[in-house]
Every structure is written in C-alpha cells, then in structure tokens.
Amino acid sequence: MIGVDPAALAVSARAAQWELDAVAFHLPRGEIRPDDCRGLAEALADLAMTMRRYANETERTEPHPGRLAVREEPPA
Hints:
By secondary structure, this protein is mainly alpha-helical.
C-alpha cells in the first residue's frame, strides 16, 4: 500500500481553502450554483478521507514531538 504524500495532501488542503474562501465570498451574493456546492462538498469529503488516512498512517509509523493547535469545539 502506498501511503499518502504529505506534500500532495498539503496542496489539496490549500486548494480546498481557496475554494472555501471563494464560496464564502460568493454564496451570500447568490453567485454560487448548486453544482458548485456539490463539487465543493465532494472535494471536501475526499480531502477529509485522505486526511484521516494520513493521520492513521503517521500515527502508526512516526513519533510526533508536538501537536498542531487545531480548533476544537468547546465542551457543552
């Protein structure tokens, strides 16, 4: 099994960020088509799946000296 390439994953994450920025700008203006929404949702689902796969692979293979501060929801 070939693992997830971290550089390619980073590029995908950045591309998703750009797409989200564009949607955040155009959505309230009514400039987003339903197909645009579906395409973005599919891209985000693919990114999430790849990110999970990368996390699972690296968890088993690499020691991690620190933790990236990822925003988490506060407890209810």
